[in-house]
């Protein structure tokens, strides 16, 4: 029993990481209606930026991370203007496919620039043994991840729930034309959303990289579980993204120790299928209705 | 006016001359006759020997594989700068297969009619995809890094390997470990680099035959992002020895998590040659160094006066074990070419088939021995231990697939 409890606890830790990636995706979806398949590669580009500054340019790691976050935010804005905004009337499906193309392009560029000697060791942001619960050691890095995850979730939830800015984002996602006619600066809001989303992705990547090792395809295996988590929790719900991701982390880790690595993946997708059949909007998502 | 008889005889003479000319042309272009010279020229023309390599230059395994062909290329460039081999320069074309079997096979089709031999690739799945095609067509496939048994067992014409199969290294590793620290319980973790079930079964047999016990095993995907669940299983099992058949960065990830989770085995971590990579050295937690031993096909560091050490000294690959192995592969290829006269694919294969204790890379690799029924050349493995950002050789162990060929290791 101790082994399964330990696996579940470590699953919560990895689920928090999935959840943070999910925040960025859900935030973008809530604001723009677009599911961003380039979230992982945008995040990895940001992590490589921080790593390059710290190792090649000799910038202290905390400063390198801050600079990389700023650069990521700006890059996200650039992506919006260059890839997303042109012919926006083509529809969300078209734009979603563009994000897939962007992901492949960024991956190819990273492979060309850094692929040969990947993976790279990314310095840990915090060090320390942490505490032991059951048989699992929760390290200082794990607690940092949990703290950052909680902080981001609260901030974003409060942003969307209590602020005019958040209301503007939601209005823009649901009725972009109406929002524009009512005077909302939808272009600026969209650009800001993309910038924030890219920045959030980089936060996750620099937290992940010390244990996952930095490589162009670092985020790929996480994205699969992340998308599962946010669909499970509800694509329009930030708390749902976190809940779904934590459930995915727990189920996956427990299945791995109980059965095998392959079982970990199987259990996740069976769970997703069941939830989609019984509750299509996800655990915490809202049923979407359209006025005819 | 000429007579009809004269016209007819002229016509017959012209027709006969045309027929002789046509027959001569046919004889020259057939694959039979003027053919020995033509066969020798596949991949050998204009004083250049053309070689091909299909390697994992992108994707998850790139860091573990790219240095192989880089090391070989650097050695060929050195040979060319010194006048070439047998009056020929060596030209090697390296194509990326991204560790995808279909791409590797497509690369072989590119090489088929252009290259003398295919050299030094990296990756079991890709080797398994291409060896039959190469063997059937008589194209030498020289010294790939491969863990799939059917590629070399039974010996396939033209397919020569230096490194033993990962599943056969477990016995040597466990014997070394038990000699060092006494018999104990063994837990195995494997990436699918070859026949994982056979690797696990061999480890279990070796552990029991040598007076120890077998605890359990786990198979994980190459590039698994989070090894915490595996570490928890190992912690619960509390083995004396951990035997790993994994890629270098996966070994590093697992070792790091084992330290984080206080789950290190009580005695040693023993890893196959697949873990001996620069990617491991740059990523592992140095606190684990005392407990990690890995099997290596080459002595590390290479002897300072060895050709490969001197060649790589001023490059970023100076201490990269994969690049050193690639350089040694290049030396083996050049040695084989030098000894083959006339230089044809078939003769190249015969040359290597006849190697007995051939010292292809003094100060780096152990001598190689091949025969028509045994195409794994190595007869001893080096045991290496990480030492900061380098490896150091701590023992030399006789390697054999049967217990009779194995023996105790001697310290270096």
Describe the protein in words:
The complex is a heterodimer of chains A (292) and B (412). Chain A is mostly helical. In chain A, 74% of the residues lie in helices and 2% in strands. A two-stranded antiparallel sheet of chain A has the order 1-2. In chain A, strand 1 and strand 2 form a beta hairpin. In chain A, helix 1 (2-32) packs antiparallel against helix 10 (238-258) and helix 10 (238-258) packs across helix 11 (261-278). The radius of gyration of chain A is 19 Å and the shape is globular. Chain B is of the alpha/beta class. Chain B folds into 2 domains: 44-164 and 301-378, Rossmann fold (3-Layer(aba) Sandwich), CATH 3.40.50; 166-296 and 381-411, Rossmann fold. Helix content of chain B is 42%, strand content 17%. Chain B has 14 helices and 14 strands. In chain B, strands 8-7-9-10-11-12-13-14 form an 8-stranded mixed sheet, with helices on both faces. In chain B, strands 1, 2, 3, 4, 5 and 6 form a 6-stranded mixed sheet that branches. In chain B, strand 10 (268-271), helix 11 (278-283) and strand 11 (292-296) form a beta-alpha-beta unit. Chain B is globular and about 100 Å long. The A-B interface holds A 2-3, 6-7, 10, 13-14, 111, 115-121, 132, 135-137, 139, 208, 211-213, 215, 217-218, 221-222, 253, 256-257, 260-261, 264 and B 57-60, 62-63, 66, 218-221, 223-226, 228-230, 232-233, 235-236, 249, 252-253, 256-257, 260-262, 278-279, 282-283.
